[in-house]
Write a structure and sequence with these properties.
With 249 residues, the protein is of the alpha+beta class. 19% of the residues lie in helices and 46% in strands. It starts with a helix and ends with a helix.
């Protein structure tokens, strides 16, 4: 990722929204969402409901973007109606959004996909903090941390993002922790379906006097592609659970 994203978004801390109108640049941003399996949130102007999808192909020659079936499945009927919808995603601290509509539908292995119009403009916004989803009460989760010096911690998962997580421990840490400390193994389990392992680095430390808890934030390091896919899937699953609870299901 890099250099080209730095050129596009710059290295400043400006987090105001900007537009990308060049097809080649837009295509590279969308290709990055494809390569990283980044979840996309879908919304229609006439409905409060939100649906989840992801990019499964970028067709430059045909000026088409291909998205997989909207989830929950109720979104399929709205997709094939041809109505304009808004799509938003987050990748490495940059929020990307655009509007488009379905031009053609298809199925593969029983799963729908949509060929949508290539967006004429992308809105992007560099964020000081990446998107994070909170772990709701009652959600099955656990965190085991092993530091480079072989010291260990068991913790409670607080929230998860595509690039890191935050967890809490009761009281203060039994040993000294510092910003920049390396975690040789961060293993966490979510919803009993996702067990993810990665190296990490401490980027946030705070002690809550009222709750008597230490909050620790980490960013993933050297995460494998398979683990990153699991993280993306876990975030999607947590978002679905949040929507389900909001709807009283």
């Amino acid at each position: 990722m890099a250099s080209w994203m730095t050129k596009i978004f710059g290295g400043s801390s400006d987090n105001s929204a900007k537009s990308v109108n060049e097809k080649a640049v837009s295509g590279r941003i969308l290709k990055n969402l494809l390569d990283r399996h980044s979840p996309i949130m879908i919304s229609f102007p006439d409905s409060p409901e939100q649906y989840l999808s992801r990019v499964i192909d970028v067709d430059f020659q045909g000026s088409r973007l291909i998205l997989n079936e909207f989830s929950p499945k109720e979104g399929h009927a709205k997709a094939i109606s041809g109505a304009t919808f808004y799509a938003s995603a987050s990748d490495q601290g940059v929020g990307v959004s655009f509007k488009t509509n379905v031009l053609e539908e298809g199925t593969e292995n029983g799963i729908a996909f949509y060929k949508v119009a290539f967006p004429t403009s992308l809105e992007y916004k560099r964020r000081r903090e990446g998107f994070r989803i909170k772990i709701l009460p009652g959600t099955s989760s656990s965190v085991q941390i092993t530091f480079a010096n072989a010291e260990n911690l068991s913790a409670d998962l607080v929230d998860l993002s595509f690039s890191g997580l935050r967890f809490s421990i009761e009281g203060q840490s039994p040993f000294e922790l510092n910003l920049g400390d390396n975690i040789s193994l961060c293993q966490f389990e979510i919803l009993k379906d996702f067990v993810i392992k990665s190296k990490a680095e401490i980027c946030f430390l705070s002690f809550d006097e009222k709750k008597r808890q230490t909050l620790i934030g980490c960013r993933f390091l050297e995460m494998s592609e398979s683990s990153q896919r699991l993280v993306n899937q876990a975030v999607l699953a947590l978002q679905r659970e949040e929507i389900r609870r909001e709807n009283g299901e």
